Automatic annotation (TrEMBL):
Transmembrane segments: none annotated. Its EC number is 2.7.11.22. GO terms for molecular function: ATP binding; cyclin-dependent protein serine/threonine kinase activity. This is Cyclin-dependent kinase 20. It catalyses: L-seryl-[protein] + ATP = O-phospho-L-seryl-[protein] + ADP + H(+); L-threonyl-[protein] + ATP = O-phospho-L-threonyl-[protein] + ADP + H(+). The keyword Cell cycle applies. It comes from the Eukaryota. The keyword Kinase applies. The lineage of its organism: Eukaryota, Metazoa, Ecdysozoa, Arthropoda, Hexapoda.
Amino acid sequence: MNNYKLLGRAGEGAHGFVFKGLDTRTQKYVALKKVAINPNVGIPKNTFREICSLRVLKSKNIVQLFEVTTMGSSVILVMEYLPWSLADVLKKYDKPLTLSQIKAYSKMILNGVDYMHQNHIMHRDMKPANLMISEKGVLKIADFGLARIYDETKPRLYSHQVATRWYRAPELLYGSRNYTPSVDMWSVGCIIAEMVNGQPLFPGETDIEQLAIVLDTLGTPNDETWPELKELPDYNKIAFSPSTPKNWRIILSTADSTTVSLISSILIYDGRKRLTAQEALKHEFLRKEPYPCKLSKMPKLKDEISEMTWTFADFDECLDKLKKK
């Protein structure tokens, strides 16, 4: 760690803290993700999955891992520093995203997801807060703590307790454990719809409310729209009032026909029929005017981290004080 200076705290994840740092050898900013290690257990499996995933995935739309090192009882992941996320843009940018900007972000998301899936990796936690953006406007998928390898020739069971609720595919809400990378695409559809509407599409407060909102929007599923529904573990645990699907032109009232076509082709019950990332990249949404805009026209936010030289001990002391309040 002698090669890095800590400049400020950049964020907090489920499995560790992220700091802004300076690589004193290159004078370039880096992100330092600190994860505590239990000596009796070793590296947490989520951290191990993230390390393995990022060592395999080398794409301009996936965050880059530079180095893994240790300090005391913690492991440090040294990654490229990306000053804000898509969640920050949606919350703090002072004007609505233009369709060209939405298309540019969507294309970068889909490029990253396609590369990920081509390499047999499911992210399982796609959401705006995990889509980081560089100072030049390049969007990169981050936080691979829930990532898993997927091999369609060797089906296996996975945990259904993945993905942040608002972006969780309906099969996960029904307890599916043998899902596919199409769960990532459901999340992508929710993210694109959120960019269009300026607010989350399915903002449930509980898992049951989440499922109720989805069913109320897409209508009650049947054997045609979701053939495998009755086989899901939690199918008979709760019943919802019958509902008819809402018109997508009303759900996405400001969207043009190609945007509606893309989102409605992703946000469907049957994961086997959802557009893949590769298919979505070929959709007319990205091939019609207005085209995805240049990076120079993408939103830019201020990096709000005030730069001071700290040590991890300083941060740990501050965090301990906060926890005691």
